[in-house]
Design brief:
The chain has 292 residues and is α/β, with parallel strands linked by helices. It is 33% helix and 14% strand. It has an eight-stranded mixed beta sheet with strand order 6-5-4-3-2-1-7-8, with helices on one face. Strand 1, helix 1 and strand 2 form a beta-alpha-beta unit. The chain binds iron/sulfur cluster (2 copies). The site of one iron/sulfur cluster has 12 residues, from helix 7 and helix 12.
Length: 292
């Protein structure tokens, strides 16, 4: 049987904000889980009891009933730790933050997205409300902030001044609204280190609302290669050609093995997901895919 340690569910794509750097195309921020998907996700959670179960969106707090239904399917003795990723927009007061968190069963952590783009919709006081309520209720709290350029790191200092929680940083990928608006992180030279890297998400599985299961939650599924990497069940995914090829692939080796042209490597291919997309776009990798 498959071991599913980290499982993420994109529980819907609707959102309360309209960020210019969103990885979701604005026109696609309308999805919610259908009944058959909810049943399938309950079955997956029941069967595999993933050690880590995280819900992402869209804005997850628009989907509390679905989150509760899916996490209730965890076996009674499971040590799983359900958590949500949120924009924190609901935390207009300590009371509102408390009310929302109390409505999510078994919640063990909150990961809040906050950066200069979220700040266009969110006063920092809401972050503070959410952090304080998490602390009061014994719920873990961390912030993930995105970078368009190294200058954006100054926000980590501002968040550090509040103190008491972890702040992780992510470079903005060239997908969704960020791609349309030219907001992806700018590399100025090609960073050769990426050639020795592997898929950063290969140890987790994500269910994409309305689309399917994949270890990929980045460039391939958002930039037109979903048919190669999304599958109807976890079993289909872990037995797929995609997973077999990506599971242990060192990206530089995959690039050479499939006839990639080293002259085509540009600064923008300096992250694993951008290089991965470049491999799918410019080499023979998909031509060598067995026909179904
Ligand atoms: S980046 Fe997050 S908060 Fe902003 S629109 Fe997209 S899903 Fe919503
Ligand atoms: S784009 Fe490639 S490297 Fe990035 S998450 Fe998807 S499969 Fe992994």
């Amino acid at each position: 049987m498959i071991r599913l340690r980290k499982f993420g569910v994109v529980v819907g794509t609707r959102c309360t904000f309209d960020c210019r750097h969103c990885l979701l195309d604005k026109r696609k921020r309308k999805r919610s889980l259908r009944e058959r998907e909810k049943r399938l996700l309950c079955e997956v959670v029941r069967r595999y009891a993933p050690a880590s179960l995280s819900f992402t969106g869209g804005e997850t707090t628009l989907y509390v009933d679905d989150i509760n239904r899916i996490s209730s399917a965890l076996p009674k003795n499971s040590k799983s730790n359900p958590g949500i990723v949120t924009n924190g927009g609901f935390a207009s007061s300590v009371r509102e933050a408390r009310r929302m968190l109390a409505s999510i069963r078994g919640l063990t952590y909150v990961q809040m997205s906050y950066d200069k783009f979220h700040a266009e919709f969110l006063p920092k006081s809401r972050l503070e409300n959410l952090f304080n309520v998490c602390r009061e209720l014994g719920i873990g709290f961390r912030v993930v902030t995105t970078l368009q350029s190294p200058l954006d790191l100054k926000i980590t200092a501002e968040l550090g001044a509040i103190g008491g929680f972890e702040v992780a940083v992510q470079k903005i990928c060239d997908i969704g609204e960020a791609k349309k608006n030219g907001l992806a992180f700018r590399h100025f030279v090609f960073d050769k280190k990426v050639l020795s890297q592997v898929c950063p998400n290969r140890d987790q599985l994500v269910y994409q609302c309305g689309r399917g299961f994949s270890v990929c939650c980045s460039n391939l599924i958002y930039n037109g290669f979903g048919k190669y990497c999304l599958h109807k069940t976890p079993e289909d995914h872990f037995n797929s050609e995609f997973y077999k090829r990506m599971r242990n692939a060192v990206l530089g080796r995959l690039f050479v093995q499939h006839g990639g042209d080293p002259e085509s490597l540009r600064p923008e291919h300096s992250s694993p997901c951008a290089l991965c997309e470049h491999i799918f776009r410019t080499t023979d990798i998909v031509k060598t895919w067995p026909k179904k």
